[in-house]
Design brief:
The complex is a heterodimer of chains A (about 300) and B (about 325). Chain A is mostly helical. Chain A is built from 14 helices and no strands. The longest helix of chain B has about 40 residues, at about 175-210.
């Protein structure tokens, strides 16, 4: 079977059905999928779900939970439940874009290193290893601080860029080792023997076969990107006009809500972050099982 | 010798990256220029004082020269040299990091080996599931929950700081008790989170060892399980674990940044939060350089240890 045919078969409905069967059998993956769907729905329908506009002050500040404000209000009288619901949009958006961009960079570097080998490989992998050995969060913080100093650059995209720029090294390593083994496969050798240019081999023959790894990586990166975003926002590197869950906890901290015991302010956003990250981790595990059938039957 | 050279190259790469990133993206005095107390004339003289009127490459050479003299710039918030501020805070962070990396890794090593040994058991499955849940929880939020439970609700531990106000460091019982009282919660958070993160790695490293031929041989010889576990599995599994200790240290630094912020612990990690809060960019830059340097040094030491542990490795 040709690579093209295999790819088109993977993308058709039969494959989707098979994927669903794997998810249905795997309880963990199914939980992840349900959680993920719920959070996405919450983000999409935020305007209908939220009782108030999260950017308006709608009551007295520092209110404890009540019928009118189920999660109380913050220091400027904004409704915390509405903030929480709208926060899903920002947190998911940043996590998603950063994960996609980061995986893209990593794939590009990994493909080039693995395929061209030699000096290119050596140089790229040295750089990757150096990046990997550094404290990731610390460097993301530094990058975010540097990028957001450029006043004209929108803060939200600055944060996304910073996260993406530190998220790629492990993707690069994974893609590289996959390419190294694919490079030795017969059909790549055959393609090279009949003189197919290397760019075409990369795009047509190697890329489709590393696609599963890339999809799993995007999902795992998503979990990590959301955690990084939360940490950055918590430390004060976030866009105050687009409050994410991490940003809510940041404001809770600097307004002393933690030491004053206002649990309704800082507990819910943390729970939401944890649930989203968990959803992506569980789905990642499920997909790994789908693409790697050897794992699939082990548990039975 | 080879390792020394690569360590130095890495250090220069990091330092150069930090320099150019910070210079290319903005005026190092941007924060000052917005300050209404600073007139253009004062700004001009500050620029001359720090050599910011020279071309970038001259500034870069000056920056490297200053680094060798241990100068990292000037903190605009503290109005003191960055190096002084960092050195003052560094002992607190080291006192947190060194014991917690030691204890958590020993714990993870013990538990991870045990899990690999009992692969497929109920205990293993429960521990792994639990650790997936715990790894989904943001680091800083875990610290917040601990702070809320133990300091706010139960009032067992203090709300903030490394010592009570008015306490001065000294070798007396009163100070040591007060210090430990403040120390215990941040320390526990670091150990807890690091053990969970490392557990997975130890487990899979040990599972790899379990599949080796010499384990099969040992079993076939009828050696008792205890001997196989201790002298065969744990011994050989230590090599891949030592290799990534440097990465664990880097992860712990990230943890210290968050944990110290939550507990208002006056270490280098909290300086990161403070420098963001006060827009003290030079301080942030200094902290990044110092902490990155510490990672490089730790990695270097680990390579030396590795060479001792594995006689096959010889560094020329």
């Amino acid at each position: 079977m040709g690579v093209q045919a295999e790819l088109s078969e993977r993308l058709n409905l039969g494959a989707l059905y098979e994927m669903w069967m794997v998810f249905r059998r795997n309880k963990a993956a199914l939980t992840g999928l349900i959680l993920f769907t719920a959070i996405v729905l919450m983000a999409v329908f935020a305007p209908y779900l939220a009782p108030y506009n999260p950017y308006e002050s709608v009551g007295a500040p520092f209110q404890p939970p009540s019928d009118k404000h189920p999660l109380g209000t913050n220091d400027v009288g904004q409704d915390l439940l509405s903030e929480l619901i709208y926060g899903a949009r920002i947190s998911l958006f940043i996590g998603f874009v950063a994960a996609v961009v980061g995986t893209f960079i990593g794939t590009f570097i990994g493909l080039s290193a693995g395929y061209f080998g030699g000096l290119v490989d050596e140089a790229l992998m040295r750089f990757t290893d150096m990046w990997l050995s550094m404290p990731t969060l610390l460097f993301t913080i530094f990058l975010a601080a540097v990028i957001t100093r450029i006043g004209t650059f929108p803060m939200l995209y600055g944060i996304i860029l910073a996260i993406a720029l530190t998220a790629w090294p492990s993707v690069a390593r994974m893609v590289r080792s996959a390419v190294l083994s694919l490079k030795e496969s017969l059909y790549v050798e055959a393609a090279r023997a009949i003189g197919v240019p290397s760019r075409r081999i990369l795009v047509k023959h190697i890329l489709p076969n590393v696609a599963p790894i890339i999809i799993i990586e995007v999902i795992t990166r998503m979990a990590i990107a959301m955690l990084t975003e939360a940490s950055l926002s918590f430390l004060g590197l976030g866009d105050p006009t687009a409050k994410s869950w991490g940003m809510m906890i940041h404001y809770a901290m600097i307004r002393n809500a933690i030491t004053l015991g206002m649990w309704w302010w800082f507990l819910p956003p943390g729970i939401m972050i944890s649930l989203s990250v968990l959803a992506f981790m569980l789905m990642g595990l499920g997909l790994e099982e789908y693409f790697n059938p050897r794992l699939r039957y082990k548990e039975q | 010798m080879y390792r020394i050279v690569t360590s130095i190259i890495t250090f220069f790469a990091v330092v150069t990256l930090v320099f150019f990133l910070s210079r290319l993206t903005g005026d190092p005095l941007a924060e000052l220029a917005n300050d209404p107390r600073i007139t253009p004339e004062v700004l001009e003289s500050i620029k001359r004082l720090f050599g910011l009127d020279k071309p970038v490459y001259v500034q870069y050479i000056d920056y490297l020269k200053n680094l060798f003299r241990g100068e990292l710039g000037f903190s605009l918030h503290y109005m003191r040299p960055v190096m002084d501020v960092i050195l003052e805070r560094l002992p607190y962070t080291l006192a947190l990091l060194v014991p917690s990396i030691t204890i958590s890794n020993l714990l993870a090593y013990r538990i991870g080996t045990e899990l690999a040994w009992r692969r497929g058991s109920r205990l293993e499955v429960t521990t792994l599931t639990l650790s997936i849940f715990l790894r989904s929880v943001p680091y800083f939020w875990l610290a917040i929950v601990f702070l809320y439970i133990f300091s706010v609700k139960l009032e067992w531990t203090p709300l903030y700081g490394a010592m009570s106000p008015g306490m001065s460091p000294g070798l007396n019982w009163e100070f040591i008790r007060d210090y430990l009282w403040h120390y215990v919660l941040p320390f526990f958070v670091l150990v807890f989170r690091e053990t969970i993160a490392f557990l997975f790695y130890v487990r899979s490293a040990m599972i790899d060892v379990l599949g080796e031929d010499y384990i099969v041989t040992a079993r076939a010889k009828g050696l008792p399980d205890k001997v196989i576990k201790r002298s065969y599995v744990a011994r050989n599994g230590i090599l891949p674990i030592v290799t990534i200790l440097g990465m664990r240290y880097a992860f712990l630094i990230d943890g210290a940044v968050l944990t110290e912020t939550v507990f208002s612990y006056p270490g280098t990690g909290r300086l990161v939060f403070e420098s963001i809060y006060n827009r003290d960019f030079w301080l942030l830059q200094g902290v990044v350089v110092i902490l990155a340097a510490s990672v490089i040094i730790v990695n270097f030491i680990i390579d030396l240890i590795y060479a001792v542990l594995d006689p096959r490795v010889k560094y020329g």
